[in-house]
Specification:
Largest sheet: 4 strands, antiparallel
Radius of gyration: 27 Å
Low-confidence stretches: none
Strand order of the largest sheet: 6-9-8-7
Strand content: 25-35%
Number of helices: 2
Structural class: mainly beta
Helix content: under 10%
Number of strands: 9
């Protein structure tokens, strides 16, 4: 399992990866590769698949393992990072690119909406952003939180409304 490494002062030093290629009994794994027969002789090659883990030290270590990875949880506890935070929320995001007639938009226009066109009790945010004046391109974004009350709701059908 990957471990977080710390300096003596408690700051993050880097990570240590785990050994790979270890058999269940703890010994290094060996792979035997059998090639096709040539004149009824078989050629066997033995390859050691064991690799020692490494310590990776860095001035800046970025943990990009998702919102609740096992290393992030260790950091939450050690540095008390969740002390004054709201509980974690989850959502779904959709994105589309539109080409719109130039007469139907204003340069620099951004439109935000909350709620519509969703069924009641579903929190949603939609925003349109104008990307390019010459090509008349808009980006349509939708974000919906996963705590919605209507369990049969299909987000994409509401999105295309």
């Amino acid at each position: 399992m990957i471990q977080i490494l710390y300096h003596d002062n408690g700051s993050v030093k880097g990570i240590a990866t785990n050994d790979v290629g270890i058999a269940k009994d703890g010994s290094p794994k060996v792979i035997m590769i059998k090639l096709s027969s040539l004149l009824h002789f078989y050629f066997l090659f033995v390859k050691d698949s064991f690799a020692r883990g490494m310590e990776l030290h860095a001035k800046c270590t970025i943990f990009a393992e998702g919102c609740h990875g096992h290393l992030a949880k260790q950091l939450f506890k050690k540095f008390d990072l969740r002390k004054n935070c709201s509980p974690q929320t989850y959502g779904i995001g959709l994105k589309e690119m539109w080409e719109v007639d130039k007469s139907k938009h204003e340069p620099g226009l951004i439109i935000h909406t909350a709620g519509w066109p969703m069924v009641s009790k579903n929190l949603i945010i939609i925003f349109l952003i104008k990307l390019n004046v010459q090509n008349k391109v808009f980006k349509k974004n939708l974000i919906s939180f996963l705590g919605y009350a209507y369990i049969w709701w299909f987000i994409y059908l509401s999105y295309i409304r």
